[in-house]
Prior knowledge:
By secondary structure, the chain is α/β, with parallel strands linked by helices. It folds into 2 domains: about 45-175, 3-Layer(aba) Sandwich (abc type-2 transporter like fold), CATH 3.40.1710; about 180-365, no CATH class. The protein is about 65% helix and about 10% strand. The protein is built from 15 helices and 5 strands. A 5-stranded mixed sheet has the order 2-1-3-4-5, sandwiched between helices.
Amino acid sequence: xxxxxxxxxxxxxxxxxxxxxxxxxxxxxxxxxxxxxxxxxxxxxxxxxxxxxxxxxxxxxxxxxxxxxxxxxxxxxxxxxxxxxxxxxxxxxxxxxxxxxxxxxxxxxxxxxxxxxxxxxxxxxxxxxxxxxxxxxxxxxxxxxxxxxxxxxxxxxxxxxxxxxxxxxxxxxxxxxxxxxxxxxxxxxxxxxxxxxxxxxxxxxxxxxxxxxxxxxxxxxxxxxxxxxxxxxxxxxxxxxxxxxxxxxxxxxxxxxxxxxxxxxxxxxxxxxxxxxxxxxxxxxxxxxxxxxxxxxxxxxxxxxxxxxxxxxxxxxxxxxxxxxxxxxxxxxxxxxxxxxxxxxxxxxxxxxxxxxxxxxxxxxxxxxxxxxx
Length: 374
């Protein structure tokens, strides 16, 4: 019992218990508020339609889908938007579709981008089934009334409408990668990178406190950044090597992947370092909050467009958002890493700039001593 009392009289014990409670409260509050109302914002998902027939079938698709539909001139423009993840699915009504369903079976083409959150892909696949069902029901009804190319056995009363198929679906999985593990790679790397950077920043801060009396603040800051840059590069090499070891096929070059992961880890380190420099040990609370928010808003499982406007805007300032987007490209392909890399560089510059300003305003030990002597 005396030992137990001694533990509770120790500051680190109370801090550890407080962190455990903070983790639980923060994750509950952030995750439940962020995911609230996701199913009510399905219209935020965008689907493109290329209609070569210029018929009323595109209007049927628009009425059938709970998503926002946009008309696209051709497949080339549609595929470009699909690869950039500006739309979730591309629907193509081929030329001659109306004539084909009158004489035989028409084919409706659906292109679904696999470099997207799991929830988005599943919703698009379910939407394809619903669209096909409604189109077949509608076309069957028209044919039954006009008695056009419908076998007599299908017109008999009580026969299931879907016994006669006029429309067949052709689903093309764009940027497809085999294996369920590939879908979890972005989340795995982002989570491991941020937690690792958070713990590293904490330990570097504690080391800084011990070195303050022996070295000036600028040499400490420069050394910290040098260590962060070297560690980021080494961890990037290790990360990409592990992906290759586990036989993941990278859709961009190994060199570009390493540079990208270096920027991801360095942005995480500068981000978490900023809070520890600004607030000391209390900065870890802000890092815990940012960890929770980034896991929700990064767009690995749930598309960011389905979150509330507040969380969508908040996601734009966090590096995990661009890290996730970049890893969709590395694992699935379809887009370029240039934009994500530039945004990560911006985050590095801004967060390190805030750290520099804080260091400028910090008085060194020898300055404090001289002021006290005067």
